[in-house]
Amino acid sequence: MATRILHWLEDRLELSSIRRLAVHKEVPVHRFSWAYFLGGAVLFLLMIQLGTGILLLLYYRPSAEEAYESVQFIVAEVEFGWLIRSMHSWSANLLVGMAFLHLFTTFFMKAYRKPREITWMSGVLLLFLMLAFGFSGYLLPWNELAYFATQVGTDIVGAVPLIGHPLMVFLRGGEQVTGATLTRFFGFHVAVLPALTTLLLLLHLGLVQKHGMSVPPKMIGKPYQTLPFFPNVLLRDIMAWYILLAVLVTLCAFLPWELGSKADPFAPAPQGIRPEWYFIFMFETLKIIPSNVLGIEGETLGVVGFGAAALALIVVPFWDYLARRLGRPGLLTLLGVLAVIYMAVMTLVGYL
Amino acid sequence: MNLKRTASLLLACAALSAAPASYSLSAQPDSARQDTCVNCHEVFAETPIGSMVEPFKRGVHAKAGLSCAACHGGDPSARDKEVSMSPERGYKGVPARAAVPDLCGSCHSSAEYMRRFDPSLRIDQVAEYRTSVHGQLLAEGDANVATCVNCHGVHGILSASNPLAPVHPLKLADTCAGCHSDAQKMAAYEIPIDQMDLYKQSVHGMALYDRQDLGAATCNDCHGNHGATPPGVQSVANVCGNCHGVQRDLFSESSHQSIFEMFEFSACVTCHDNHLVKAPGEFLLAGEDSACLQCHEEGDAGMQTAHSMADDISSLAAQVEEARALLVRAEQAGMEVSAALFDLRSANEKVILARNLVHSLVPARVEETVNEGVGIAESAKEAGEEAFEELRYRRTGLFVALVIIGLVIIALWLWIRQVDAALEGQRPAA
């Protein structure tokens, strides 16, 4: 019976082609092979986000009047609601962390080189989407810290030249952060961003399968061992996911994600307003830029600078091509090291 | 007056005498020419004869369109000071101190005049002032007592709601203390000078200064504004009752009411003090600082009642605190207990209500309220205990989950070893 069902499916879906792909896929073995697990870890955490997000949607109500109370209800009354909400929040943070690590390892292993330029670009865009998920999701519980952090965050968007103010109004649904902003962010968080992520993720994963795993430049042209993806590497992937799961549930049990107090637009902003940790380096940078630099507003300069850096990051494969043409292949690596040190130092400064 | 100030005053007087010659009014625009008092005096803004101009301009009188002449007389339209400041034009100069209340009252006591500016303004200030200790002493010829200007200022008079006004709630006590804490000034009247020090330590003073609570009682709330007089023994309960109405009503229905009247005890002050009003607490009932011990003795029926009420309330307060501490610990452990913490507020309200009911001197009423509060506190405590039970359940669940995950990881590791070994077997030997 089972064989007949498999045959029926095979006739229609050609599952053997996927099996053949899995069987033939080989993963290089070297001292940086651990970096290959980071993409899988991001994917695993993304699946947790999807699952817990759908469960949260069963009870969450996206309005200024009910959002906080509905999250409170999820945490206090719904069976295992506290676990689902904590997993969603903790996993979001681990996901962004893993995505950054994935980016850094890909960058320093120069895995963006031909023919993987589009894989790199789709990956960077996916990271930006993860940050957008983080920013929009942060507001959804409608608590005090999130409310004021969103106000600060959207104020910064307002500093973008020419389109800053209209963009800020579009994001907020008005001049101020209100219930309209919450509803809007909810829409971005559960519809627009997931749709874009799905498209880019399919492209990214498809390209990874098409081009296979890259190896560090020093290994190119030299003989190296490989491991079959199925089952040797897949089993290792699954083991890594279980370790991540153990970390995640431990964090949820010992440090359940706080809800804080309900947002009150008429209350004075509490002390210590700051964005999520992954935005801290940008936040701190904006704080140290002088208010006026050569007649340009400091905040505008900062926002334009970060916009330019984001664009530069997307087109890294082409910078690399240019640097090699100029005979300075190490320049980009040096810039990358400096950027990582800068981000780490500024993040630390934000917490000191 | 020090030498420097005297010199500057003389210099300014000399300059003002020469003003018509050296200061050309014709150079001023028409609008500025309308008040020659201001035009001339403001030239000497840095000296005593001109320093009043700026405060006057910021004050309520200038904003209402009044000129210097409203109080000092004279003709502000005349350019020559000999004319504008001549008795023929009604110039009165600086009013005598004793004449100040009448001068202010010439406008402020007239309903017809005052309604032009604000129909809701009272017009009985001067009449009230005459009934005050200040007003009575002034009538007896004591020119040292406070008149209108001592509290409201002279030229820069501001509305009482203006935070800069000396009669604003946050500044009023300091204004009164300006005289009443001055040993030299008060020596002749043989009254204490420690009111301000005591007030600052009182529950009212702390509310006003520490919490900036403008609703907290300050000097005028008990002594009156313009009719400032110490409240008498019979009226003090009414004075306190203006804010503490529930306590006043409970007290007036209690057995203490007639006894206090008989012995002419001041109703509230006997137990709570006057300027140093203590924050309410069970220490006022039982213990060595008990106010009851002023009349009762330990062991008598009155003290037994006091102890019974104090024990009930203390017990409730302790239970509320215990439940709150438990809930806060649960909250810090990451548990969601905001609903229980919210409910606990009403138990705290029962503590406050029970403290109020002490004024009835009926222990059964206190006990009934305390029992209601105990019920709420117990529910909150149960919620806290349930939260900790849930926390233990979570930790146990985590342990079980980690054991299962650990076993799966070990199984995977063994599987990986197995498939790697199989792979090595398949690979050709190097």
Which terms would index this structure?
heterodimer, A: 352 residues, mainly alpha, two-stranded antiparallel ribbon, two-stranded antiparallel sheet, 14 helices, B: 430 residues, 59% helix, flat, disordered N terminus
Count of helix runs of chain A: 14
Number of strands of chain B: 0
The overall average pLDDT of chain A, rounded, is 93
Helix content of chain A: 55-70%
Helices of chain B, by number, come to: 24
Supply the helix-strand structural class of chain B. mainly alpha
| Biggest pleated sheet of chain B | none
Q: What structural class results from the helix and strand content of chain A? A: mainly alpha
Q: What is the global morphology of chain B? A: flat
Largest interface: A-B, 25 and 23 residues
Question: How is the largest sheet of chain A built, in terms of strand order?
Answer: 1-2
Regions with little confidence, pLDDT below 50 for 5+ residues of chain B: 1-33
Task: Report the span from N to C terminus of chain B.
Answer: 110 Å
Computed Rg of chain B: 36 Å
Largest sheet entry of chain A: 2 strands, antiparallel
Name the shape of chain A in a single word.
Answer: globular
The H-and-E topology of chain A, N to C, reads as HHEHHHHHHHEHHEEHHH
Task: Give the % helix of chain B.
Answer: 55-70%
- Kindly report the oligomeric state of this protein: heterodimer
Q: Provide the gyration radius of chain A in Å.
A: 23 Å
Strand content of chain B: under 5%
